[in-house]
## 1
Amino acid sequence: MVHWGELGLILVHLGEFWVILVHWVELGFIMVHLGELGVTLVHWGELGVKMVSLGELGVIMVHWRELGVIMVHCSELGVIMVHRDEL
C-alpha cells in the first residue's frame, strides 16, 4: 500500500486487483479505480457529480445533481441516453 498524505492518494494491491483510491478532502473528491475490471467511480461532492465507467463494456454513467441530469453512454451499442429531471 502506498499513501501520499498531501495528495490524499492511496494505492492498494489486493491479489488480482489493483485498487486506486483518491480522496481529496478539500474538494470533496473521491475516485476509486479497480484496474483489472476497468471500473472507475468518481464522486465530486461540491459539484454533486457522480460518474461510473465500466471500461471493458464501454459504459459511462454521469449524474449531475444540481442540473438533474443523468447521462448514460454505451459505446458498443452506440447508445447515449440523457435524462433531465427539470424538463
## 2
Amino acid sequence: MPAINVNDITFHYTDSGLPVDKEEYPTLFVIHGHTFHSGINEIFRPLFPVAGAHSLRIICIDRREYQGSTPYTTDELSVINEGTDAERLELLTLEGVYLALGIERLIRELHLPVRGGGALAGWSLGNVFSLAVINAISHLSLSEGVKTTLKVFIRTFIILDPPFQVLGLSSPPEDYSPLWDNDIPEAERGVAFASWISSYFIHDADTLGHRDPSKLNQRNPSSKTATTVKMTTEELLSVTDFLPGPKCDTAFGGHGPAYHSALRLNSQNALFDADPNINKWDFRSVVHLYGVESAWSIIYAVWALEEKDRASKRIKFRPIEGANHFSLSSDMSTSTPAEEYKMMWDEPEVTVAVLKECIAGV
C-alpha cells in the first residue's frame, strides 16, 4: 500500500493515478469520514477509472487509526478522550500540520502539475481534519517553502456534507444520532450509525423554508433503500472499519460535549475569525457541497454555516437534489426502480462531473 511519512507519522493513501493522455490535470485530495475509510477497497474507489478518463486525479488519504496509517499513542488517545480543551485543540492542530506536510510531500514526490491546479475536500467527519489543514497554514512548524507549495497548488476547498457536530456548532434541543443512543448497545452503534447516516430523509418544504431544527426529520428515513443496505456484507466490510469509532472518531466527531470547544475553534479559526486562515490561502473558490436528503445534522450544518457566512460570503453553497450523505447524483425520480438514487460508486460519472465543476469554480 502506498504511504507517505512525515514527522514519524505514516499516512496510507490511494491514488487514481495519471489521467489518460494528459500532462496537466487537477488533483483532488480527499480526507474520509467516520468508519468509512480510504483503504484499498475504499468508499471513493469507483470514482477512480472515471476520474482518469475525465482528466482528474483523486488521492484519498487514510487518517490515523485507519488502513495502515499510524495509530494514536496511548497518550494521544488519553488527550482525545479525557484531555482539556486546550490539549485537544493542540492535538487537532498538529493533526492538521501532519496532513498538510503529507499533502505537500505528495505534491512534490508525485510531481503533480501545478498548472492543473488542486483541491482539498473533507467528507463528513473528514471536515474536522481538512479544516485543521486550513489552519496549519499559519502554524510556525510549516516552513515558508511548504506553505508556498500548498498555496500555489491547492486552489479550491470543498466542504463535503459535514454534520454540525464536526464544526463545533451548538446542538438544537433534540439532536438524535445512533452513536449516543443508549437504547443501542455500544458495540452495535457503529453499524446502526452506518445505516442511519446512509439513509435518505425527506425534510418538508415548510421546515426547510422556516429553518426550524425541531421539525427536521431525525429518525424516519424515506422508502429509498439506505446506501449500506444496498451493499453486500463483503462490500460493507471492505469499505468500513468500526474499531476507530469508539476509540477516537466519535470523540473527534463532536458526539457529546467532549470535543465541542476544540471543534468550534477549529472551524472558527479556519473560516470565520476576523482574519480567518482561509484568507491566508489563494483559493479561487470555497464550496459547501451537500445532499438535500442527507440526515438532519447535515441540513442543520448548512443553515448554521449560511448564517455565519452571511456577511463575508466566502462560501458557495451547492445543494444536490435527490442526494443523501453517500450520493452525489442529481434527482433521479424519473429513473427505473433498479436505477433509483444510486450511490456515488453507482453514478461515478455524475460525481466526477460535480467535483470538477467545483474545482473549476462553476
## 3
Amino acid sequence: MATMSKVGDGLKATILMVVVQVIFSGINIMYKLAATDGMDLRVLVAYRFLFGAAFIVPVAFFLERKKRPKLTWKVSLFALLCGLFGGALGQNLMLESLVLTSATFAAAMVNLIPGITFIVAVCLRLENLGWHTLAGKAKVLGTLMGIGGAMLFTFYKGPNITIWETNFNLMKITSHHPSHAAESGNLALGVILAIVSCVFYSLWLIIQAKAAAVYPCPQSFTALVVFFASLLGTVSALCMQRDWSQWKLGWDIRLLTVAYAGIVGSGIMFVVIAQVVGMRGPVFASVFNPLLLIFVAIVGSLVLDEKLYLGSLLGGILIIAALFVVSWGKSKEIKKITQPVPEEDTSIEDQEREKSSDRNNDQLVQEQKNVSIESHADQIEITVTIPKK
C-alpha cells in the first residue's frame, strides 16, 4: 500500500509539473504579445505580482486558517528570499539579459537551471548524488540529457517541418512598437545577468524545499512569497520607469497578460511548484524547465505562425526521454529510502540472540536442576543418619 502511494505521488508530481510548464508557455507567449504592444517588462513584472498577491493572499487566509502554524522569522526570511530570487529580482535580471543579448541565448541559459539546481542541491546535501547506485546514475544522466536536448532544440534548426498550417498570427492584432534591444550592445553584461538569474531561480527552488520542511502550508507560504515579490517588483519598476503612461492598463493585451500571469502563473502555479518541491525535491521540479521550449514552440506555431524545425523535434524527443529517466531514478531513490529494512538483514543477529537466549535459559534450568538434586541428596543423607530410639 505504501509503495502504491509513493507511485501515485510520483505520477501526481509529474502531471503537475507538466501543467506548470504548459501554463508558463502561455505566459511567455503573452509576454511576447505585451512587449510587442510596447509595455515595459519591468512594469509587467510588477503588475504580475500585484495581481498574484491580490488573488493568493485571501485564498490562503481562508483555506489554511485552521492548520497554519505560527509564522516565525525564519519562515519570513525564506519567503523574502524566494520573493527576491524567484520573483522580482530573478525575473527582471532574465528580462534584462533578454534585452542585452537575444531570445535564443536567454532560452539556452534558462535550460542550465536543472544542472545548476542539481549541483547546488548536492552541495547543500538536499539531494543525494548516489553515483554508485543505478538511481543516482539515472538522475545525473537524465539531467544532462535534458540540458543537451534543450541546447539541440535551441541552436539546431535543420529543415522545416510542416505539421499543421493555421495562418493565424496574434502578433498582427497588437500594435507594433520599435524595439530598443539594439541600443545596448553590452553582451558580456547580458551573459552575466542570465547566469545570475539562473542561479537565483535554482536558489528559489532550494529555499522552497527548506521552507516546506518547517512550514508545510504551500498556499500561505506562496502568499508571503508573492507579497514580497510584489513589493520588491513595484519598487524596482518605479525606480526604473518614470513614464506613467507605461503604468496605464486598458481592456487590451496588457491587462490580459498581467492578470493571467499574476493570478494563474504566480497565484496558482507557484503553489503547485511549492507542493512538488515538498514532495520530490528541487531537482525534480527543475528538470521540467526544458519542457517549456516544446510547449512554446507548439503554441507559437499555432497562434504566432512560427515554424517548426527538425532540431525542435529531435530536441523535444531528447527532453521527454530525459524526464522519464530522471523520474525513474527519483522514484527508485524514494522507494529505497522509504522501504522497510528487510528481515534478511537482521536474521543473523536475531538468530544469534535467540541462540544466546536459549543457552542462557538452558544454563539456568541446569543450575536449578543441580540445586534441586543437591537439596534432595542432603535430605536423603539427613534421613539416613538419624538413629532410631
